[in-house]
User: What shape does this take?
Amino acid sequence: MGLPRLSPKTALIEAFFDGLYRAKVIEEGYFSMWAMATDESKGKDTAMFQLIFFLDWLKDAKVEGTSSYASSESSHSDSGSEDDILANVPKRVQHKIR
Assistant: This one.
């Protein structure tokens, strides 16, 4: 797909990684492990460039349940990236049955 952008602020791969993290499909440590691995996968450099803000946020994120977690969540949301993503999700069309 060529690592498309959903908006000027958000890349598709960033939204995908964020979804995997928030759904607890992949634990935090594995994102860092992947980022630091010295493999030569095709496109990894470009992906890393698009993921820099997510990986930095993840590095600074607080553990869920601590008092700082809520402020970390709100500061991530304030960047507008979630709104950008939701604005680009197709809306479901409901057809009336006659």
